[in-house]
Amino acid sequence: MEEFGYNTDPSQGVHILLESIINPKSSSNQKQIDKQILNDLEETSFLTENILSIIRQVPKLPKSMPRFPVDLSMINSQLDQINSQLKEISSSLNDLKQSS
């Protein structure tokens, strides 16, 4: 939270609160408490908006789509095929590079 410019020291709010309990008639203490509460509310609002914007960016899976791949062996065999094709392409590129 410090990277957003907010004070992350919780003891500051605690000290202000304790001071207001000890000396409740001090208007400066009340002003500090009000200011701290407003700052906390602004920070909470800002962070909530950031969290909501991140959540909105996460794509939702269709209900019919399984959450787990059905056939991992099929996916593995396809990945093996792709890997062997990439090796062939790499070998061909190396051959071309050496011949030129």
UniProtKB/TrEMBL annotation:
The protein's name? Uncharacterized protein
Source organism per entry reads Stentor coeruleus
